[in-house]
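Homework help thread (please don't just give me the answer)

Our assignment gives two proteins as sequence + structure token strings and asks us to describe the second one. The first is just a warm-up. Here they are:
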Amino acid sequence: MLEAMTTQLTFTPEVIAALNYERFHHPVPLVQRRMEVLWLKSHGLRHAQIAQLGAISETTLCEYFQLYLEGGVEGLKQVHFYRPESELVQHVNSLEDYFRVNPPASIKEAQSEIETLTGIRRSETQVREFLKKNSICVVGKSG
């Protein structure tokens, strides 16, 4: 399937050196893998062998090639992690104002107040993390 790919990837000695460096030194493992895959490609390995050595699917291999075609080595470094936001984020200002005037004595009390004020029910752990992340103080830290 991939062996018949029509677009040729070209690699200058500088690009090969950058791929070689980044495959070991980039702080994000996903980027290291991308660099490794393109480095293997630059050495003329067959696509099936590159996918096997890179422990990726052939579809992912095509995606890495496309990233390189569109943005070069810098394109391979782009990582967009999905990080969902809590529904409580839209209430952070009103909750902060409320808890500044009415500090909860416990996480359990904060949990109850948040549910009453927003209609959103969260576990004590989720409430504790939300309050901590948004620097909202609780008077008695116990649950």
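The one we have to describe:
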Amino acid sequence: MKYRRFGRTNLQIPVLSCGGMRYQHSWNDTPLGDIPADNQSNLEQTIHRALELGINHIETARGYGSSEVQLAQVLPRVERNKIIVQTKVAPFENPKEFLATFETSMERLNLDYVDLFSLHGINTAEILDWSLKKGGCMDIARQLQKDGRVRHIGFSTHATCDVITKAIESDEFDYVNLHWYFVNHLNWPAVECAARHDMGVFIISPNDKGGKLYAPPEKLVRLCEPLSPMIFNDLYCLSKSGVHTLSIGAAKPSDFDEHIKALEYYDDISTTIASIESKLRKEMDSVLGHDWCAKWDQGIPEYFDIPSQINIKEILRLWTYTKSLDLIDWGKMRYNLLGGAGGHWFPGEMAKEIDNEKIIQACQASPFSEKIPTILREAHELLFDKPVKRLSQSD
């Protein structure tokens, strides 16, 4: 395993983390006695395999159903100073609810403290504002830190880049969990901002949200040779010194195997990925044109600045990578969360009804404003299937 300094926490964190949202029995809180023995055994084997590989960062959340209570059957039996445990609690407007939820989390985990504690889901400016207000959730978190129950405080986010940057620039947080990978460059300014503030950077879901790379299309497989798409994406993310760890949402012990192969190239990442990245960019330029690939997001407002709240920027991103790299299953998975199914975790509307004039006006700062209504219609035709739920809503 390779390790990086996790920003100002000064923790030496493994570059691969064990994310805890795919091996649990249920997304609902479930009594331990109702959890099937084979599921619990699989979870424990997954944790032991992670530790054998040097993946000593175990990450979970209060919102991950039975994950915490199941982890409590294995983590307290591991030498405490040999593991880095992270849990996450959604901020509440009423900080008493936030504290009560934290207490539930710790009771479920059966631990005296967690090394990393995240305000989970700072996805809007409003949530950020009432989290940081005097007497709000951050004040509760600071008191827990003084009491020795949490070591370092961070936040997780699916927000637009401006909100993430605002949270970083508050200088209240030691680290951030965010999305950034080959098919999503939009948060790169936030990664750079986090580096300036010496914050740890944890990449959320590079396998799933990063392209459903566990089931890649043939075209992507071919373009990434001799690496697998999953290994390429790992190395692409780790090629940036401001990125410290990638979440591996393992559902079983063998799910780590492909990522471990990526570490064979760790000492020569830039050279290893250069030709593959070049092939991918060249193919995208060939399908969509270099000008589009270089500038498609320029001048595109966020969904909340568009009268119909169509999430144009997100839809254009999905269309760009789906169209050029055949990522149709990934595109559908993400697109069909729009329109309310994803809540503030994936906000904005689909491109069901397009008013050309209003869209062109909203995107007037874009060099492609005249083309965008047509692209939105094509994206909807290509990607619309049926509304889907977030994984945490699946029960």
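TA reply:
I won't write it for you, but here's a hint about the kind of observation we're looking for: The beta strands are 3-5, 12-14, 16-19, 57-59, 84-89, 114-120, 150-156, 175-178, 200-203, 245-248.
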